[in-house]
Amino acid sequence: MLPIHTIQSITLQRGDGRNLRYVLQLRDPMDNDPFIILADDKFAHNTFADHPHKGMQTVTYVLEGSLTHYDSKTGGGGRLAEGDFQIMTAGRGIIHNENPDPGEEVRVLQLWVNLSSDNKKQPSNYQDLPHDNAPVKAIDGGQVTVFAGDVDGTTSPLALLTPFIFAEVKLEKGARYEFPVNAGFNTYLYGLDGEFSINGEALKAFDTVHFDITKNEDVIVIEATEDATIIVFSGEPIKEPVIAQGPFVMNTQEEINEAFASYRNGTFLEGVPY
Predict the structure, then answer these.
(1) Residue 228: which residues within 8 A CB-CB, separation 6 or more?
(2) CB atoms within 10 A of CB 181
(3) pLDDT tens-digit readout, 135-187
(4) CA atoms within 13 A on the CB side of 52
(5) In this structure, are residues 129 and 84 in contact, taking their beta carbons and an 8 Å threshold?
(6) φ, ψ (nearest 5 deg) of residue 119
(7) Residue 162, CB-side half-sphere exposure with 13 Å CA sphere
(8) Is the pTM of the predicted complex or chain greater than 0.85?
(9) Phi, psi of 158, deg, nearest 5
């Protein structure tokens, strides 16, 4: 069994039209490597107006409602409905917005995935995975939906720059599943609902587990004491310096300063107006 490093119950923060839980916070970016943050966020219209990103990817899983986004890459945008998944590569720079469709709130999980110094130079792009197209692995007493990466031979169609796994595990009461973890990957688990145990530790919705990184392949033993839904995200550390400030994730403070300066002086999108 993959050893548990820490367990934390994630508290709710309210304000500015948002109900927010920071599942993964930016305290020690090297401890999070290759991830930066994970937010469980329920928000109202006009919460996320135009804003830039650079040097990372946003990974969005819509839990409730639907949202529409507009961006500098396509000159248009798109719509994500409940159950849809998206990887947005900011790369060398993008400006976008994302708002719930009129008259509703939307709840999303948004994970920020870091990029290597080379991949920070990639052009921005989007990959969408509608819920009906996400591969599902049937298991005894439940199922595993694989949105990114590969879980026990079930593989997402999305191309990855930073190797990582993002999967949702649904288990009926009494079901048990051994979730496989790659050697050397940094692995987290977040309870969306229900009650369950991990390696014998009793947990519930909004609990987060950070596991030890091991040199060998291993498994997380999940047992549902009630019907449960669980998110597992696991990635290969990049092992490069990380400076994350605001919407930018770079390798040096100088690169961060340059990103802010270019956004202020209008050259952020290589001189192309937004």
Answers:
(1) 169, 170, 171, 191, 193, 194, 195, 196, 222
(2) 22
(3) 999 999 999 999 999 999 999 999 999 999 999 999 999 999 999 999 999 99
(4) 21
(5) yes
(6) -75, -15
(7) 37
(8) yes
(9) -75, 135
Q: Tokens for 65?
A: 């409602």
* Nearest one of 171, 182, 238 to 211, comparing CA atoms: 182
| Cα 117-23-183 angle, rounded to 5 deg | 55
- At 114-138, the pLDDT tens digits run 999 999 999 998 999 999 999 999 9
For residue 61, count other CB atoms closer than 10 A to its CB.
25
Q: How many residues does the chain have?
A: 274
User: Buried b / exposed e across 230-248, counting CB within 10 Å, b at 16+?
Assistant: bbbbbbbbbeeebbbeebb
The encoded tokens of residue 185 equal 């990957």
Q: How far apart are CA 20 and CA 10, in angstroms?
A: 10
